[in-house]
Specification:
CATH class: Alpha Beta
CATH topology: 2,3-Dihydroxybiphenyl 1,2-Dioxygenase, domain 1
Shape: globular
Structural class: alpha+beta
Length: 124
């Protein structure tokens, strides 16, 4: 019998003026099985199967300058091969807005999706 606890993130839902383009951006550039609401991916996938690993769930102060003040949320994705991924993104014309490394935590880089939402890429 389940003891009534959250065991992971079940989904991420992003509003967009062009949901099909936004879903395609995540599929094409980051390899995520992103869908349009109520439709599978072009390959017929409904869910993105992830590798198990750490997830940071953190609240920031309203005046934090860690990401743009006009955004309430920033997506952070755990990656392997950050340098190779960044090279592919740059070759596709996607700007890398900043990079940093934190000892004991990992390397980070930030991009923005086609709607301007910040996406932090983290290689632990």
């Amino acid at each position: 019998m389940a003891d009534g606890k959250v065991v992971g993130i079940g989904g991420l839902f992003i509003r967009s003026a062009d949901p099909a383009a936004l879903a395609a951006w995540y599929r094409d550039h980051l390899g995520i099985a992103a869908t349009c609401s109520g439709e599978p991916t072009p390959d017929g996938e409904w869910v993105w199967m992830q590798q198990a690993g750490p997830t940071v769930f953190s609240a920031f102060k309203a005046d934090s300058d860690y990401f743009a003040a006009d955004r309430q949320v920033m997506l952070n994705l755990r990656v392997e091969g950050l340098d190779a991924l960044l090279a592919r993104l740059e070759a596709a014309g996607i700007a890398i807005s900043h990079r940093e490394a934190m000892e004991g935590v990992g390397a980070f880089a930030r991009v923005h999706d086609c709607d301007g939402n910040p996406v932090e890429l983290w290689e632990p």
